[in-house]
Please model this.
Amino acid sequence: MTTTEKAAGDGGAGPDRAGSGEAPATTAPDKPPRRRDLRDHPEWVLVPGVFVIVVLLWEYLLPVLGVDAYVLPRPSQIADALVTQLSDALFWTHLKITMLESLYGFLLGVGAALFLGTAISQIRLVEKTLMPYIVAFQTVPKVALAPLFVVWFGFGMTSKVVMAAVISFFPMLVNVVEGLRSADADRVQMLTVFGAGKFDVFRRVRLPSALPFIFAGLDIGIVFAILGAVVGEFIGAKEGLGYLLLQTNYNFDIAGMFAVLVVLSLMGLIAHFIIRTAQKRFAFWAEDNTVIGA
Model:
């Protein structure tokens, strides 16, 4: 039988299978990546929308209700006061002092919380010895300590740094302890079976498990540090945004007070976004965690 006869006898068994009725196999095209839209992120519209509505109501409803500007200034008056302060070189000096006090206090509180929290979570004797004192000291209102710090450390920057450190210390400490204790027991046991030492277990399991908690503590700690610095300036200071708040209050400059509060809010927001950005970089596997407060 010749090659031609074999092909005729196959009757459509050839590669095109024209008579078989089967459609040729095709490869499904890759789906394009789904584009993000407002349905996925409604906050892109809701957040600025709520802000605009509140500002407009605040601006135009107050005169209708007969609220005096010296009681509650309008947003336009607050904006004018903010522009005036930003154009004053002395304001930037006050801002720099408060930022430095908050940063130094935050670093001091975080360093102490990391050291002590690690010791408490890893050494049972340290936990049993120090935890009663820490819990007792935690119940003391931190703001009530500000006058003592002024007496002990003076009216300079040191008393405000200590105040910021104390206020930011406790939420950071609790998150460090809880984070180091949250490590998966099975992973710890597995590494121990394979001969890993305590430091290797700490570095490979406990510390990565604690990172989301640590960043949660950093997030709330930086805001508390700003609060501590301002409270310390309220008690006794010659410069800083807290001191500027008192001065505007004495001068009955309510719009100026609101302008300083806006700057303090922006400081907190910027610090919050910096911590969140670092968390997404170093603890991206667990972005959503409950912050354990003070």
